[in-house]
Amino acid sequence: MNNSYTTPDETRIGHVHLKVSDLDRALEFYRDLLGFEVTTMYGENAAFLSAGGYHHHIGLNTWHSKGGSPAPRNTPGLYHTAILYPTRKDLAEIVQRLIDADYPIRGASDHGVSEAIYLDDPDGNGVELYRDRPREEWEYKEDGSVKMVTRPLDLQDLLEELE
């Protein structure tokens, strides 16, 4: 196999499609709490949601999982879905929505290149809500690779974006 291939720079991960146990409950989280808009429903078993009118960023279905239990944490599978917010203020706004809804936040980290909030959706799927710092603020190691860290994120400082 030729190992010289690299994925084109313009490549993006377009959407995530999740198996959920209860479509209405999943919609309450992704639509009502996080604010994604439903672009289409497939009967009573699937929904596609987006931000900004794209065909879908998130697919939800109960085709094989209706009424099922969350996947065990200690088995292979999706670790989390990461949702990138355009600005620090946008990230602060969604964090405030979570706080106002008393929705449990599992963690908050400053990774140097980004600031991230971690939570689980109602089916136990990991969700990361984050914003990237501008690339000119990123630090690099001697070998040229990106230097990433995991430090506690100061939520009070983040929420001051809303003042």
Q: What this model shows, in words?
A:
The chain has 163 residues and is α+β, with helices and mostly antiparallel strands. It has 2 domains: 14-66, Roll (2,3-Dihydroxybiphenyl 1,2-Dioxygenase, domain 1), CATH 3.10.180.10; 79-163, Roll (2,3-Dihydroxybiphenyl 1,2-Dioxygenase, domain 1). 18% of the residues lie in helices and 26% in strands. The chain has helices at residues 23-33, 88-100, 155-159, and strands at residues 16-19, 37-42, 46-50, 58-61, 81-84, 107-110, 114-120, 126-132, 151-152. The strands form 2 sheets. It has a 5-stranded mixed β-sheet, with helices on one face. β2 and β3 form a beta hairpin. The longest helix has 13 residues, at 88-100. The radius of gyration is 18 Å and the shape is globular. The termini are far apart. The relative contact order is 0.16. The model has no long low-confidence stretch (mean pLDDT 95).
Concise overview:
The longest helix has 13 residues. By secondary structure, the protein is α+β, with helices and mostly antiparallel strands.
Describe the secondary-structure layout:
Elements: E1 16-19, H1 23-33, E2 37-42, E3 46-50, E4 58-61, E5 81-84, H2 88-100, E6 107-110, E7 114-120, E8 126-132, E9 151-152, H3 155-159
Parallel strand pairs: 1-4, 5-8
Antiparallel strand pairs: 2-3, 3-4, 6-7, 6-9, 7-8
